[in-house]
Structures are given as structure tokens and as C-alpha cells.
Amino acid sequence: xxxxxxxxxxxxxxxxxxxxxxxxxxxxxxxxxxxxxxxxxxxxxxxxxxxxxxxxxxxx
Length: 60
Description:
Number of strands: 4
Strand content: 25-35%
């Protein structure tokens, strides 16, 4: 079955075969870190707002 829906979250589209069968391939996931006490997008590169901090500093 093929489903393609556009909502306020972007395009929702599920693969119908292969490695990503039934996975939503219509959107790009964001990598987010807490930096300075706030969530910040660190990837993918074309939308990141800051570089990722790695390795993370030790807890104090």
C-alpha cells in the first residue's frame, strides 16, 4: 500500500519494500543536543544551528 501525506510536520511517506520497508522516508530526522541548557539542532549539516559537542564534558 502506498501512502503519501503532507502535514504540518512535513511529508509522511512509507517505503513499500526493501531495507526500509514501512519506515517513514518522507522526512529527515534532526540530531539535537542540549547545549547551554537549551535544545540545539546539530545535524544534518544543511540545517544545523551549532556544531555537535563530542565527546561531552564530564558531569560536575
